[in-house]
Amino acid sequence: MTTSSIVRPDGAHLKEPIIPSKHGETQSFSIARRNPLALDSKVAASSIDNLNQLLADTITLRDLYKKHHWQASGPMFYVFHLLFDKHFEEQSKLTDLLAERVQTLGGVCFAMAPDVAEATIIPRAPNGREDTATQIARLLQAHEIILLEARTMARDAASAGDLGSNDIIVSNVIRTSELQVWFLAEHVQ
User: Fold this and answer.
1) Model confidence at 163, in pLDDT bands (50, 70, 90)?
2) From CA 77, how far away is CA 93, in angstroms rounded?
3) Cβ distance 173 to 146 under 8 Å?
């Protein structure tokens, strides 16, 4: 294997493999590949766009949960620290399902934080720590945004014949979000 040498500021030499590449990007983000799924290409393209939007918002919600997990405070610290982490893990599973569905349909899924930040419609949280009531309100708002778009996207996918996308959205995204909303809302009654 061929290697190149990099010199660090401290003078140390590091060897890096040179990975041969005949091409750079193999598929543009905006171009869908046609997979033999017995699904009209326009339907697939529409679902790819919708699922990528839902993916960007789900990644943002997932990251909000981790932020609040790390920054939990107050007398209920331990409860929220665990709850936010549990919800983070559940949202992580959803991001994987959504990304894989985009790829299955022939699209390219969002994969980098700057792309997600540019695409999400969930308002950005401040860098600093917020009190628990504000954290919960922010999470409930993000869930509501996702649920509104997910219901519309599920109906659109079903009416267009994309039952696979409809199933993922209804059985996973909507049901998980509804359950998480219930757990959060119980703390603000």
Assistant:
1) very high
2) 25
3) yes
